[in-house]
Amino acid sequence: LQLSYLRAGGHDPAILAQLLHLQAEAMALEKGATGPRRGRRAAPAMPAEPPDAGARGLDAALLAVELENQRLEEEILALKVRRERRANAGSQVAQQQAEELAQLRAEVGMLRCQRERMRQWLPPAILPPPVAPPLPP
Questions:
Q1: How far apart are CA 66 and CA 27, in angstroms?
Q2: Which of 2, 32, 61, 62 shows the greatest Cβ crowding within 10 Å of its Cβ?
Q3: How many Cβ atoms are within 10 Å of 82's Cβ, its own excluded?
Q4: Among candidates 19, 24, 14, which has minimal Cα distance to 62?
């Protein structure tokens, strides 16, 4: 439940604490259920110790640290994915700009060739004859 909550973007500390408490209770119930079965009771070599509240606190703290580590690992993974997407998008933009530049250069080259062809087809410019300087009197 906690992983689903975190993956869905949840981050409310109160809800995380409740989920942690539920998980600790479930672990305690599982440990109790894995005891002797079918009416057989194992004779302990030593007297059973009462459940230690400190150990439960340590289990809960360890579980909280593990869950926080998982959340941080997922966040790191999400950041890596975003960085790769940005890098891919940046390289795609650069590639598109390079293609556009190459196309523009090709068009400029074609226009230059057309200009040279047009110069060949045009007749030379006809200028009026030069005006002679006035004659001295």
A1: 15
A2: 2
A3: 10
A4: 24
Q: Are 23 and 62 in contact (CB under 8 A)?
A: no
Q: How far is CA 35 from CA 22, 29, 40, 57, in A?
A: 21, 10, 10, 22
Please tell me which residue, 116 or 50, carries the higher pLDDT value. Answer: 116
Residue 127 three-state SS: coil
Q: And the tokens for 91?
A: 């390289």
Torsion on CA atoms 31, 33, 38, 40, rounded to nearest 10: 30
What phi, psi does 124 have (nearest 5°)?
-65, 150
pLDDT tier for residue 53 given thresholds of 50, 70 and 90: low
Give dist(CA 5, CA 12) in Å, integer. 10
